[in-house]
Amino acid sequence: MPLSKGGLGIASLHALRSAYNCDTILRIYNVDSQLSRWIKIRYSSPWKPPPRHSTAFWKSLHNSAILFKSNFTFNVLAKSSINILWDPWCSNCSILDSFPDFDFGSIIQDNACLANWMVGSSWSLPTSINSQILEFFSSVPISTGTSKHLSWENNENASFKDFYKEYFSYENDVDWANLVWHKKHSLRHSVYSWMALSNGLKTSVALTARNIDVGNTACSFCQTHPESTPHLLFECDYSFQVICRLIPQFSSFLFRPNLAQAFQFITGLNFTREVKNGLLLILNNAVYSLWAERNSRKHNGRMACAVTLAKRIFRTVYLKLDSWKCGNLIKEKLMVSYH
Q1: Could you tell me if 294 and 220 are in contact, meaning their C-beta atoms sit under 8 angstroms apart?
Q2: Local structure of 83: helix, strand or coil
Q3: Which H or E run includes 118?
Q4: 289 and 234 in contact (C-beta within 8 Å)?
Q5: What tens digit of pLDDT does each residue of 111-160 get?
Q6: Which long-range contacts (CB under 8 A, 24 or more apart) does 226-230 make?
Q7: What are the residue ranges spanned by the domains of the chain?
Q8: Can you say whether the dihedral through the CA atoms of 129, 135, 136, 138 is positive or negative?
């Protein structure tokens, strides 16, 4: 999934295949080659139901054509290679869908194109067509201002990236993507915030919900409340003390925030973008360090107090800020020290 949709930005093979199919469909109509002519003779149109003998590649192409039918826009040009029967050139519908009661098969071949019914830039229709269809064709202008027979959402210069993004258009954007994956983020730390916001941390409550017996489900920090992601980050007294030492503005909360609220709180602070990126770096590092501290207590029996853990986080952030262009200014503003 893309980062903006709550994923890790790792390419999806299904989305890549879908984007390739859409790009191929455009090239079939816009690039006059021996291959495109052969495809039109053999299969007529990507929107025509594929015959049984068709290849898996063509069936995949047909599925993409149907799925993204509304994204394609046909332009009727002189000498147009658009299939009369099957291509959805009539306001995203084929002529068969627009006039289901008319028997086009008796007057036109399956792979005939609009150029067969044109003379120059004017229509030349068979006399056997009824007046309603004749009126419809006469109302369709033959364009001369473009060279592309098919475009993507009225964009003649659509790229592979546009096709790829459309595959995920049904997914909602998440409001925390730019906060977790902020500029100059630390992948090692941000990925734990991503897991926490995606309910991917294997807390005791999460494991119990999967019917995995973990014994004691109490929080490793306070030993009072069940160990869930919202409690660990930052409803627990221990984790809230840590974040308040790192970012003192959090002490203004009347109720303990969860991680999503913590991110949104930072966006509302009156700081420059660079300083906010520094705060986001601290917050993501805190999530990673708190989870590491939880594991250390649960599995190794070693524990650090809130002051020690906050100092440990500050040391890591201090070294990370050394590589930032305005890192020293951010250190002074946020009082980040190595000691």
Answers
A1: yes
A2: strand
A3: strand 118-119
A4: no
A5: 788 888 888 778 887 777 777 888 888 888 887 766 788 999 888 889 99
A6: 227/203, 227/294, 228/203, 228/204, 229/196, 229/199, 229/201, 229/203, 229/205, 229/259, 230/258, 230/259
A7: 3-166, 177-334
A8: positive
